[in-house]
């Protein structure tokens, strides 16, 4: 089932393992806090930014349906519908008939969304470039801890 967490190992964790996991969680949360602040500064709620990014990053040449978006954001279908309604009201997305399935409605970005997303993606890329060396080193340490 989607979203289910499965234990990979019953081996005992060391204090170092816990420290590495805590540091990784801290860095992820720090990036998420950065992302939320950047979205708000651009006039978007963080979940709206995440939705725009999910739409833009969907499979090449395809537009996502609401169900696809719900899955990518980890939310229920009805929550995705409400989110799309708010984005459409804000002039950031438009609904289109899905050319491959008449039962579905595809979601496309407007020019305003494209502009906002380009600004946010640029700042996020710079933040990731800044964090990359620290994350890379931490991931190596986590991998080494499994040996």
Q: Main traits of this protein?
A:
5 helices, mainly alpha, 2 strands, 147 residues, two-stranded antiparallel sheet
Task: Outline the low-pLDDT stretches.
Answer: none
- Category by helix and strand content: mainly alpha
Question: Mean pLDDT score, rounded?
Answer: 90
Task: Tell me the β content.
Answer: 5-15%
Helicity level: 55-70%
- Helices and strands, in order, run as HHHHEEH
For the largest sheet, list the strands in their spatial order.
1-2
**Total E-strand runs:** 2
Number of DSSP helices? Answer: 5
What is the overall shape?
Answer: elongated
- Describe the main β-sheet briefly: 2 strands, antiparallel
What is the alpha-carbon Rg in Å? Answer: 19 Å
- Terminal-residue CA separation: 30 Å
Explain what you see:
- With 147 residues, the chain is mainly alpha-helical.
- Helix content is 64%, strand content 7%.
- It is built from five helices and two strands.
- The chain has helices spanning 15-41, 46-56, 66-73, 77-89, 111-145; strands at 93-97, 105-109.
- It has a two-stranded antiparallel sheet.
Helix/strand layout:
Layout: H1 15-41, H2 46-56, H3 66-73, H4 77-89, E1 93-97, E2 105-109, H5 111-145
Antiparallel strand pairs: 1-2
